[in-house]
Amino acid sequence: MNKIKYIISVFFLTLFIIFVVGSGDDSSSKASGPSIPQKEIDFINKYWKLDSDKSYASTDAKKNHARSIFDKYASRVFPVLNWYGEITEVTNTYITVSYKSLDFWLYPKGQNIDFLDWDVGMKLYFSGFTNGPGTWSDGIYIDCLEINNLNKSGPHFKATDTEMNYYKEQVKSNKELDEALDDFFNEMGKALKDADF
Fold this sequence. Notes:
alpha+beta; CATH 2.40.50.110; 5-stranded mixed beta barrel
C-alpha cells in the first residue's frame, strides 16, 4: 500500500511540476520592452494616417485639403514628456531618433551634452517641445530639454536651470510655445510627484 501511495504521490508531484513549469510566468526570461507614452503612440498613428490621406487623395482639391490638415497637425507646438526613440544618427548639433518609422530630430537646448557619448542603436527617452515637421523627410523637430538613455549607466542630458530659464525667455514671444512650456512644467511636476524614489 505504501508503494502505491508513493507512486501516486510522485505521479501527481510530477504533473504539478510540469504544469507549473509549462504555464509559469516566463517574464524573467523575456526582456520587457520600453514603456511608450500613449500620447506618443496616438501622435504617430495620427501623423501616419494624415500623411496617408494626403498621399492617396483622389483630386487636387482633396490633396490640398489633406495637406493643409496634415501641416496644421504636424506644426502644432506641444510638450513631449519621456517619448521613446532609438538613435539612428548623431551629428555635432542634433541626435536623430526613430520610433514607428517616424524620425525625431532632437536639438538639445543646453551646452552640457557631449555628442561623442551617444551612438546609433542606443534607446532613450526624450522630453521637450515639438518645433514643426521636417521639410525633406518624415519627422518632427524637438527642442530637447532632457534625454535619458535607457541604459542607466549610459549618457544623459538635462538642460540646467539657467538654460531652462533662458529657453523660457526665448519662447515668451511665441504665445503657443509659451503655453506649451507651462503645460510641460505642469506635466513634469506631476510625473516627479508620481515617481517612486
